[in-house]
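Why does residue order matter? Because the sequence determines the fold. Keep that principle in mind as you read this record.
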Amino acid sequence: MRRVARQHGFRLLLHEKPFAFINGSGKHLNFSLQDSDGRNLLKPSSSQRKNLQFLTLLCSLLLGVSRYGGLLRASVATPGNMHRLGGNEAPPAIISVHLGDVLTGILERIGEGLPEELPSKGMLDLGLTRLPSIQPDYTDRNRTAPIAYTGNKFEFRAPGASQSTAGPLTMILAIWAWGMDQMADRIEARLAETDVADAALDAIKTAVNESCNIRFEGNCYSEEWKVEAIRRGLPLAETTAEALSLYLVPEHRELLEKLGIFTDREITAYYETRLEQYIKTLEIDITVMDSMVREGVLPALSKQIRLEGEAFAAVPENLKDETAEWEKHIRSLVTLKSDILVTVEKLSRIRNGNSHNTLTKQADELNAKSLPIMEELRELCQQAETVIAAEFWPFPRYQELLNIS
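Structure:
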């Protein structure tokens, strides 16, 4: 990919959020399940038996996400993805499932107790006479949802561009396998007293009610959803370090060990490796930012100040009364340079004084102190970009980067 990009005069970026306020770069992980004959088990059909199977498998995943959604959040925790999640068509850091109005309505009716008559909702009959029919939604546009059912598959939209999909897919399959075990146990426990269809419906009803915490059809960007998600008990991990720590939750460790994915020691080692990777990446970001500011932005500001100062000094005495705004502008350039110097020095001190701490402490310090300062410094440099002449500005401007001529 890098080679092909260069052949066409481009450069490949796998950073999830290279430009603020502009859509980032992620990977959408689409997944479904097939039987031995290649039939898609997540595609509703006109067969009553297959639709009962469809609902069972659907609820298996919902159960898994409800119980172990933190593992999905941990699986997409990368340094760059932290900046991507939560805006510009990227899903938020809170894991929820969007099913669409029709399927949500069906599950809600099942959860309420399966009345004998339900209105038709589409073309595909869910069967068993007590269930309505649904139409697959191939036009889902709720881009704020981390996980969405799109008619015959699920789509996990949170993985970042720089990461392999193997990690997120492993966690999806792990929690889905757990959910299937739960559904199978509940169905089998009822077979002595009822037939398999009624046993399955009871299991589906229970799963629907247990998984209501992660089902959400609204705007996942809204502050109201964040408050509601906390009320529902969903894990909220806004930074990569917080998300990686979800691997260490006891019930998460237990599941991964039980399924043979990791031993308990391997979980700890994996967590520490990923955390160290996060810390090193942030330290590299800080070093590069420091270098760009000191070697590029500050000298450019000095040139601009000198240019403005020399031009101001050359103004004839009889025109000095007209230069109040100009003088104010020059003062603002000096203030801006001073603010950038103070901020970059503050950032350097935090980086240089953090190496002696433990990994967890280093990550905490970077999250609490370095990230806000880096954002402040970025805003100051962006302000400088707007007031420095093109001949002095050392880097490509946003307009040049994002407009292909």
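The CA atoms of residues 91 and 146 lie 5 Å apart.
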